[in-house]
Design brief:
The complex is a heterodimer of chains A (471) and B (314).
Chain A: H1 19-27, H2 30-55, H3 59-62, E1 66-74, H4 75-99, H5 104-107, H6 113-117, E2 139-146, E3 152-158, H7 165-178, H8 180-185, H9 194-204, E4 216-219, H10 228-238, E5 241-243, E6 248-251, E7 254-259, E8 262-265, E9 268-271, H11 294-299, E10 304-306, H12 317-320, H13 323-331, E11 338-339, E12 343-344, H14 348-356, E13 361-365, E14 374-376, H15 382-394, E15 399-403, E16 409-414, E17 417-426, E18 428-432, E19 435-438, E20 443-447, E21 461-469
Helix pairs in contact in A: 4-13
Chain B: H1 3-33, H2 45-52, H3 56-62, H4 68-77, H5 85-98, H6 105-119, H7 124-128, H8 132-153, H9 158-186, H10 188-194, H11 198-208, H12 212-219, H13 225-233, H14 242-260, H15 265-279, H16 282-288, H17 290-313
Classes of the chains: A alpha+beta (471), B mainly alpha (314).
């Protein structure tokens, strides 16, 4: 399968975005990359100490490999992408407002109601309730892949608590230290202001009852959570308190945090904890990491949760296939970013097509994530294909199938030298009451194994710094 | 600041200070127990160490007899003793880890490094006493490193003040407990009973708080029990004395009150104890009862800990 390479055209010429990098790679002494990679490993191990500190033994494995060759996009390419991202997040917010409100999209017969009501991420507690500024998804991570010079596909919408932004920021810090000369020669758009933009977004969504200087906190499940490092990293850069459930309490439908100066009112909670654990009085009663009464304060409009409760219903893989229609329904526009054509196995015709073409397709669990429970047809053994065939026949509702996309490749420094490897991209989209903010860049994930299309870190993927620059 | 953050800072320091006090108590004990019985050494020195550490009751639920080996095991390594040196470092690090970003890199390195070294330490040589001295020296140097890096690198704000409060409340408690267990050797009438042999007990008390040299500098006199008591209770120049501890406790509580614009029960309590220590004379303390004085102090110190917790840490 000939994939689009972001650096080199089929005729061997270099694409403009990569011209300075290609020249630098050509003239750099052979040992330099090896040396810089060792240096990068050292720097990350130092950051990694911070990882290991929190999760101890298993944390050693959580240090994600970093590739020192950046992934590059031109400002023009980026601008096109951001328009599509902004459009997508607007549609997600409109959809959620409708689903928990008048449900016009169900009445119009565009999305089947059972996909909503039977969805484990649907929160009936939110039905008929409004949220501050009508915003549900304030922080989104939209995973996109590229297949040619002009075409991006959305692979997945992450509308719950998308993570990985600390890698985006730290990858850049390490690159600036390792390759100051490259940053001197190229005008790379900075990403370090992400946390400023995030704070502005979070401040903008404070409930109307808050003071003009609202108190924003970041809520973590605690230091044993696998993303705790990112939580403390962000709280630090945002200059806000990193709270656990036990630091907060609710009195008369108002949320307070326990401080050394006494109770202090909290207006906005950037929560990195799943819906089910937020409030033991409403969701899982065994949750010890939540805040009893939090939902009552939320419904009273006295606190904003980012993201809102119940957003998971919009980033489900089954709903994903309806996104182009959802977008047209609310915005009356054509989607700028494409959706990967998706066969919903719940539909009998689609199922029989999928069963007939299994070796060509990628099959995913509707509620799965992280690259688990996934079949990549062209790379699967006969036995794996048979296993999936049975699974599909038993539980067609649980699966979707997509054509195997030729994800673009980027030059990557691997054992054998510099070689093309498949990549995807997670840009972070911030959606405040005062507008949408998108930091130029994002988290590029790279499948380090030759030919592999699975970029998830749990499956041997690594990360790259992502440059958006003028050419 | 979050109450939980302040609580972690406060306990982090208390545990490090507690580990150091235990090390000093064990040092003095080993020295005394090495003396012939005729010179004041006695077989129950190890028992006295357990009493000074304040864990007599819990000790005897685990061991039948207080010997060198059982006492070192309990006070240094035991998982069953929540305040063993090992547990102190573990808890201090875990408290520090929870507020990692409030600490300077140097402080964290000191805390983390101490635990990583202690975690898998071979206990055999230490239990036999051969390696004990070197190990206790290491414990003190770790405490010095944490303390020194805090002193040299931390911003002087409430983060620092809460961690210092922990140090001085714990230190006051430890000094008072040493006095409580050894008070009888400081009383003049007992001196007659024990004769000159108590000299070694007095010097052990001083060594337990690193004050042997200070004593001679301050009093230019041979060891006298009431002067030992004076040094440990009332002399504000002596860094482990009750007066010095409360000078600092008062200072940091006042800093907090000023920064937060509010006084509370803990400031009031600290101020009255500080005044009491400032106005007292050692003769009066002996006359109205050294033991009663110390028991009263320990009670007040505990109440102050509870008041700080109530006012700031929960």
């Amino acid at each position: 399968m000939a994939a689009f390479d972001e650096m080199t055209n089929a005729d061997g010429s270099i694409r403009p975005a990569y011209a300075p990098l290609a020249e630098w790679l050509r003239t750099a002494p052979p040992d330099l990359l090896t040396y810089r990679r060792q240096e990068a490993e050292l720097l990350f191990r130092r950051i990694g100490v911070t990882f290991a500190v929190y999760g101890e033994k298993e944390a050693q494995e959580r240090i994600i490999p970093f590739d020192i060759i950046p992934r590059i996009m031109t400002t023009k390419e980026w601008r096109g992408l951001t328009q599509g991202l902004e459009q997508r997040v607007k549609a997600l917010n409109a959809f959620l407002k409708d689903i928990y409100g008048r449900q016009e999209i169900l009445k119009a017969g565009i999305v089947p109601p059972d996909l909503i009501y039977l969805n484990p991420a649907f929160r009936p507690e939110m039905a008929g309730k409004s949220v501050p500024h009508d915003l549900y998804v304030q922080i989104a991570g939209i995973d996109v892949v590229r297949v040619d010079a002009d075409t991006f596909y959305v692979l997945e919408d992450n509308a719950r608590t998308p993570s990985g932004v600390s890698y985006m920021m730290e990858n850049r810090e390490v690159m600036i230290r390792l390759f100051p000369e490259l940053f001197g020669q190229n005008r790379v758009a900075p990403v370090e202001n992400y946390t400023d933009e995030l704070l502005a977004t979070l401040t903008s969504i404070a409930p109307n009852s808050a003071s003009s200087d609202p108190t924003v906190v970041l809520m973590t499940p605690g230091q044993f959570n696998s993303a705790y490092y990112e939580h403390s990293f962000l709280a630090d850069k945002l200059g806000i308190e990193l709270v656990e459930g036990s630091d907060l309490f609710v009195k008369d439908e108002v949320v307070y945090m326990r401080t050394t100066k006494g109770p202090q009112r909290v207006d906005v909670i950037y929560r990195r904890i799943d819906d089910e654990f937020l409030d033991p009085l409403v969701f899982r009663p065994d949750s010890t990491i939540g805040v009893p009464g939090l939902m009552s304060a939320y419904h009273a409009g006295n606190v904003t949760l980012a993201n809102a409760v119940g957003t998971g219903v919009a980033d489900d893989k089954a709903i994903y296939s309806y996104m182009p229609d959802i977008l047209r329904f609310y915005l009356g526009e054509e989607p700028i970013l494409k959706n990967v054509p998706t066969w919903r196995c719940r539909e009998p015709e689609a199922l029989s097509y999928v069963l007939d073409h299994l070796p060509e397709l990628v099959v995913k669990e509707v509620h799965g994530s992280g690259g688990y429970g996934m079949l990549v047809g062209p790379h699967a053994s006969k036995q794996e294909l048979e296993t999936f065939r049975k699974k599909l026949q038993q539980d067609p509702e649980g699966f979707i199938a997509q054509p195997t996309l030729a994800l673009s490749t980027c030059p990557t420094f691997v054992e054998s030298g510099i070689a093309p490897r498949h990549v995807d991209l997670r840009p972070f989209v911030l959606c405040g009451a005062d507008g949408v903010r998108i930091i130029p860049g994002g988290l590029t994930r790279v499948a380090l194994k030759d030919g592999s299309l699975v970029v998830n870190s749990s499956q041997g993927g690594g990360t790259k710094d992502t440059w958006v620059m003028d050419v | 600041m979050l109450s939980r953050t302040a609580d972690n800072l406060y306990w982090m320091s208390r545990y490090v200070e507690r580990a150091e006090s235990l090390a000093r108590i064990l040092e003095a004990t080993q020295r005394l127990s090495a003396l012939p019985v005729d010179y004041g050494g006695s077989t129950n020195e190890w028992e006295s160490a357990v009493a000074t550490a304040g864990c007599t009751a819990s000790f005897y639920t685990v061991h039948e007899e207080a010997t060198q080996e059982t006492v070192i095991d309990y006070l240094v390594f035991s998982d069953q003793n929540p305040s063993s040196i090992r547990n102190c470092f573990r808890l201090a690090r875990s408290n520090g880890r929870a507020v990692r970003t409030a600490l300077t890199g140097e402080m964290w390195d000191a805390l983390n490094g101490a635990w990583l070294e202690l975690k898998d330490l071979d206990s055999r040589g230490i239990l036999k006493g051969e390696e004990l001295g070197r190990f206790l020296g290491w414990v003190k140097s770790m405490s010095l490193r944490v303390d020194g890096s805090a002193y040299r690198t931390m911003l002087r704000n409430d983060i620092y003040w809460f961690s210092r409060l922990g140090v001085f409340l714990e230190r006051a408690d430890n000094t008072a407990r040493i006095l409580d267990v050894k008070y009888h050797v400081l009383l003049p009438e007992i001196e007659r009973v024990g004769g000159g042999l108590d000299y070694y007990q007095w010097s052990a008390v001083l060594r337990a708080v690193s004050a042997m040299t200070s004593y001679h500098w301050v009093y230019r006199d041979s060891l006298k029990p009431w002067l030992v008591a004076d040094l440990l209770i009332l002399n504000a120049q002596m860094p482990r004395s009750l007066a010095a501890c409360y000078g600092n406790v008062g200072l940091y509580l006042d800093n907090l009150a000023r920064a937060y614009g509010m006084q509370g029960p803990s400031q009031k309590l600290a101020r009255s104890m500080r005044a009491k220590l400032g106005n007292a004379k050692i003769d009066d303390i002996f006359q109205s009862g050294l033991h009663e004085f110390i028991v009263d102090f320990i009670g007040t110190n505990n109440r102050l800990g509870a008041a700080i917790s109530e006012q700031y840490l929960t």
